[in-house]
Amino acid sequence: MAETIVLEVARYRPEIEAEPAFENFEVPCRPDWVVLDALNYIKDAIDGTLSFRWSCRMGVCGSCGMMVNGEPKLTCATFLTDYLPGPIRIEPLSNFPIVRDLIIEMSDFMTKLQGVKPWIIRNEDLPVSQGEYRQSPEQLETYKQFSMCINCLLCYAACPVYGLDQHFVGPAALALAQRYNLDSRDEGEAQRLEILSEHEGIWGCTFVGECSVVCPKHVDPAGAIQQYKLKAVTEWFKSILLPRGGRD
Ligand code: SF4
Ligand code: FES
Question: Least C-beta-crowded within 10 Å: which of 98, 173, 188, 242?
Fold first, then answer.
């Protein structure tokens, strides 16, 4: 096996580069090393100024997403040996502004996420004396898949619609909205549907499906968006066919 591999790493230091450029680093290619290990090796042993985000190193925090040879990946779950003989090109996630080196600006996503109200909405809270809101395993199963999202943003980097139209709410925010809509304790679906039925909400999605392909947690945001579209059309039909007050 090769003892080293070359990483072509995108650099962008606003005080030095006018626009992103690549810098090559030769790193050890150990069988148990992932791309994140190689980036940490560069930071520790070659160039301490290289900037990137990570935290858990176990596919949970969602902060280490980058483009690896053009594909959105969690770098803590992407082995160097899968790219032999190299080189491996590492870039910040596509479709986001770059803050520095491999770090993207996430504010747009945070605003959109908040906009879909990803929390349980109740018309009226039950008195505490009635105990907890109980839920059966079957009820949990209806939304569990969508609750696995770790906000890694790989789906936004893969989404050509978001790449062209930054007003599109995007895959993860829509999947998380659906996660709460399907929760038996929630009563906020109508509020979310009103927000998401706008063009930039669910209708912007042309069902390319790349979001679901790249998702490391198998959340299937494309599936969530299609469910949402079906629901929106059903509600629209109900609104024109049923007399006011006859809807559920
Ligand atoms: S839906 Fe999947 S790819 Fe998108 S942010 Fe959530 S975990 Fe990451
Ligand atoms: S470092 Fe947390 S998901 Fe990769």
Answer: 242
